[in-house]
Amino acid sequence: xxxxxxxxxxxxxxxxxxxxxxxxxxxxxxxxxxxxxxxxxxxxxxxxxxxxxxxxxxxxxxxxxxxxxxxxxxxxxxxxxxxxxxx
Length: 87
What we know:
The chain has helices spanning 3-18, 39-42, 49-57, 64-76. The chain is mainly α.
């Protein structure tokens, strides 16, 4: 990505990170500690905002689409259907 686009993406990540709800998305899910043993089976490509920001700072994204795709992966873990409370 060119420098102006990189700066815009970085600004977006900073805006997202400042949101109150972002606390849940800033670091990788510690699925072992949380006892979510099926997490790796359900979430094939885990991603978090911290990892995206780190990769962005290292200029790891060649294209805007690469950055956008990884950023979208952050939300995948919350789009999964949750088990029903009824048995």
